[in-house]
Amino acid sequence: MGSAMSRWASSPSGRLASRIAAVAVALGTLGAAGCGPSDATPASRRRPDAPAPTRPAGSHVFPAAAAPVLDDPSRDAWQRPDDVVAALGIARGQRLADVGCGTGYFTTRLLRATGETGHVLAVDVQQEMLDLLARRLEPADRAHVTLRRNPPDRPLEPTDAVDLVFCANTLYEVSDAMLTRFVQSMADGLAPGGRLVVLDWKPEPMRLGPPLAIRLSAARIRELTERAGLAFTQDVALLPTHLLLVFTKPTPAPAK
Ligand SMILES: C[S@@+](CC[C@H](N)C(=O)[O-])C[C@H]1O[C@@H](n2cnc3c(N)ncnc32)[C@H](O)[C@@H]1O
């Protein structure tokens, strides 16, 4: 069934269905049948010792042509972006990265949280998304936001040394072949003591969201981040639809 799923996902109709489902993420209009394949076993029903299933190959990147739906006002009701950002306890003046920033739905809120002495590095694999984000920034905010188009497996650089990496609704779009390097890059881009925050769709059947088969379980996200040298810190139970997981980069012990 797995290879049939892969063939489906990488076929033109599968790619189209994935794209429609991705658009439905923000529109919130599709019923369960439209949310993608329902034959993926939800993580909660899988045996704990079962190996992580292989996710369908192919690109699941949210199409830039559908970007306006990311800012549809109806999204605020289920995404609760202000509550999400408030839950992170961001201090004034912190340096933040928004990985997979899209049109900047969270970027501008992160910017407000870090204030006029802070900075947000907004990273996306699609230049069209960065262009849309550039257009929404107020002139006074421009000096506090850096826009960067990244290679698909390397969102951040070790020299970025940010205090917090925020990665929302993006990890599920990264293919299995790149996930380990992608997460390692986010860990490498953190300053010691910095935090990685992953906000992503729960792998459970629901009316909204991308196909179940491409979502990641909390256990898989923990495995990837812990392998990248981060420590699990917090599971914030805020949204019924999303995982909100926090990881911390250890501070090296002082040299004796
Ligand atoms: C569903 S959108 C979410 C955008 C934004 N975080 C939000 O919640 O509104 C996912 C974004 O991740 C970006 N993306 C997908 N794969 C990526 C990768 N490998 N590196 C950086 N960005 C990526 C897409 O271009 C898209 O803008």
Describe the structure.
- It is a single chain.
- The chain has 256 residues and is an alpha/beta fold.
- The protein has one domain (2-42, 66-248): Vaccinia Virus protein VP39 (Rossmann fold, 3-Layer(aba) Sandwich).
- Helices cover 30% and strands 18% of the residues.
- The chain has eight helices and seven strands; from the N terminus they run H-H-H-H-E-H-E-H-E-E-H-E-H-E-E.
- Strands 3-2-1-4-5-7-6 form a seven-stranded mixed β-sheet, with helices on both faces.
- The radius of gyration is 18 Å and the shape is globular.
- The structure holds S-adenosylmethionine.
List the helices and strands and how they pair.
Elements (H helix, E strand, L loop, with lengths): L1 H9 L1 H16 L47 H5 L1 H7 L7 E5 L7 H8 L4 E6 L2 H10 L8 E5 L12 E7 L7 H13 L1 E12 L16 H10 L3 E5 L6 E7 L8
Parallel strand pairs: 1-2, 1-4, 2-3, 4-5
Antiparallel strand pairs: 5-7, 6-7
The chain binds S-adenosylmethionine.
